[in-house]
Structure formats: structure tokens, C-alpha cells
Amino acid sequence: MNDKASVSKELNAKHAKILEGLLKLPENRECADCRGRAPRWASINLGIFICLQCSGIHRSLGVHISKVRSTTLDTWLPEQISFMQCVGNEKSNNYWEADLSASVDRSDIGKFIRTKYQDKKWASRYNPQPGLSDMIGEASDFGGKADVPRKARKYSLEEDVFSIQPPQVPTTTRSRGVSLDTMDEFLNLPPKNGLMSAPSVKHKEDTQDLFSLLYAPEGNQDRTIVPPSRWATFE
């Protein structure tokens, strides 16, 4: 799907007003290269505003060096607008013309542009080229984030991709054994302190009672002697 197709008319009109406001800034009122004409074009990967003549030379450099867009005719994406807001002619030239002397001739503007961007003859040897890091850096200065889609950002440790919490895995809890006290309460049993103590058993006395039942005393026994029958006697 073409990204430009996702830009509505309302959003496109909003982008046009933003670009118009950027062109009114003092550092963007003249072409970033020839410094003599009003810019109506832009290089969306260099972050500069250029005139019509210089835009044709930028196209000859190839899109790997400069991608040219019209500020009034083309459809702009949100990340491109944010990039132009964060860079601009002054910040870009501070890098590309860091070692440029005031005596350099700009009359042959084609040669000047190729030497500037293709050969990088005057580029800074100490500072990095303005890029997407500037968009995140400027947003942090104001305590927020630049209006740049996630796919165009360079993630850092402060980005949301590291703050996402991993999915919580439900933990299973083991059921613990119920204590005896808890079981007593559940079964509504009387407390242990209220239990009646069983009477102590005297085994010795019980044994004596057992023998007393089995063997009666001699006084109580019947001592009647039955005489033998007469037929059992001998005369």
C-alpha cells in the first residue's frame, strides 16, 4: 500500500501550512546552496529547502544522496514534515559547510553542490550528519516525543519497546493441608480444652472383680453331701 494514499486531504492541507510556516523562518528564506533565490523545493533526507534550479542538480545526485519534493505540489508524509521541522537549512549547513571558507566560488552551482554533498569536502569531521536522532533529541529537550511514526524512529533505552511489560503468566497456588485446629472449627467440634478426660482404669481392681465373679468364696458354697444310693453300697 502506498503511504501517500493514507494521507487525507485535511492532513495534506495541514502539512502545506506547516511547510509554508517553515519557509518564512529567517534561516529558510533563501536557498540552502545558492543563497540567492527563494526556495520552493526541499530535500527530504538532507532536511534543506532549495530553489528550482538547485533542485534539478539535487535530482542528478541520486536518491541515495538527495530526495527532492515540492513544498506545494507533492504529498508529504508526517515523518517527512517532522524531519524538516527538526533540521532546516541552518542546522544542515552547519554540518555540510563546517569547513567552507567564505572565498569559495558559488558561480558554478552544479559543481558546488556535487562537491558539497557528493564529495563531502566541507562536511564536519567532528559532528554527525543531522538525521533522525535530531528528531528524538529535540523532543526530549521539550519533555516530549517528536511526532514521528515508530517505523522511522531509532529506538533507545527510553523508548516504549523496552517498557512493555511481558504478559503475566497465571500462577497456580498449591492447596495447603488444613491444620487440625481449622478442621475442628469446620466440623464444629468442641474445643480440646473442653473434652472430658476419660476415667483412669485400674486394671488390678478390675482383675479382682473378674475373679470374684468366677470364684465364689468358700462360705457361700453349698457343702451338702449327698449320700450314695443304697444300691451302690456293699453289705
- How many β strands by DSSP? 3
Strand content: under 5%
Q: What would you report as the Rg, rounded to the nearest angstrom?
A: 53 Å
Order of helices and strands: HEEHEHHHHHH
Strand order of the largest sheet: 2-1-3
Structural class: mainly alpha
Average of per-residue pLDDT values: 76
Number of helices: 8
Bulk shape: globular
Low-pLDDT residue intervals, each spanning 5 or more residues = 139-163
Question: Residue share in helices?
Answer: 25-40%
Let me know the largest β-sheet: 3 strands, antiparallel
- For the terminal residues, how far apart are their CA atoms? 149 Å
Q: Could you give a quick summary of the protein structure above?
A:
By secondary structure, the protein is mainly α.
Description of the structure:
It is a single chain. With 235 residues, the protein is mainly α. Helix content is 35%, strand content 4%. The protein contains eight helices and three strands. The chain has a three-stranded antiparallel beta sheet with strand order 2-1-3. The termini are far apart. Residues 139-163 have low confidence and may be disordered.
